[in-house]
Amino acid sequence: MAPGRCSAWLNRTCVGGDSAIEPYLVTHHQLLAHAAAVQVYKTKYQESQNGLIGITLIVTWSVPTSDNKFDQKAAERAIDFMYGWFMDPLTSGEYPQSMRSLVRTRLPKFTKAQSKQLIGSYDFIGLNYYSAGYVTDAPVLSNARPTYQTDSLVDMSFMRDGKPIGLQPYVTIFHWDVPQALEDEYGGFLSPRIV
């Protein structure tokens, strides 16, 4: 999140901001700017430069803490809120269903024209992958103030049963076939190059 911009109730050092809305607005406009830049590049420069244009996404992979269906769904939501938040608009023209259901009116909507411009606005997808975490389902608290960090209704930990998910405490080295998992989930759309 932007340094110094958050709701004051979340962090007293914040000088302004709304943690319930601003992360979604920023991402929405970032995606629109990306699609506009891709359109300009593909229309004016790609043929003469014989170049490719893409987007790089940060991915923190989520592994269910247990085999129960609630943790399984929590892992799906966590991936939606991290990766799908950006990738779904690029492949389907809208945010993941889980985000639309949970964030509701705080999540901006794309117009039909914007959705059309977003879909396929890449030649490749870059993955900035550092770590993974165990996730559990976190029920809604009636007194909770909404933020991007709580909207997904998941709790993440790098430990399960006293054992870390990977070799290091923060940037955990976790043996997981992320590109294959992403291909399984998104490969049916436009099968981009993943780097």
What do these coordinates show?
Strands 1, 2, 3 and 6 form a 4-stranded mixed beta sheet that branches. Helix content is 41%, strand content 18%. It has a single domain (22-194), classed as TIM Barrel (Alpha-Beta Barrel). The two termini are 25 Å apart. The chain has 6 helices and 6 strands, in the order αβαααβαβββαβ. The model has no long low-confidence stretch (mean pLDDT 86). The protein is of the alpha/beta class. β4 and β5 (163-164) form a beta hairpin.
**Helix-residue proportion:** 40-55%
First-to-last CA distance: 25 Å
Quote the CATH topology. Answer: TIM Barrel
**The top level CATH class name:** Alpha Beta
Write the layout of secondary structure elements.
Blueprint: H1 22-49, E1 54-64, H2 69-92, H3 97-103, H4 112-118, E2 124-137, H5 148-151, E3 154-157, E4 159-160, E5 163-164, H6 178-186, E6 193-194
Parallel strand pairs: 1-2, 2-6
Antiparallel strand pairs: 2-3, 4-5
Short précis:
The protein contains 6 helices and 6 strands; from the N terminus they run H-E-H-H-H-E-H-E-E-E-H-E. Strand 4 (about 160) and strand 5 form a beta hairpin. It has helices spanning about 20-50, 70-90, 95-105, 110-120, 150, 180-185; strands at about 55-65, 125-135, 155, 160, 165, 195.
Please describe the structure with a list of short key phrases separated by commas or semicolons.
195 residues, alpha/beta, TIM Barrel, two-stranded antiparallel sheet, 6 strands, Beta-glucosidase, Glyco_hydro_1, GH, beta-glucosidase activity
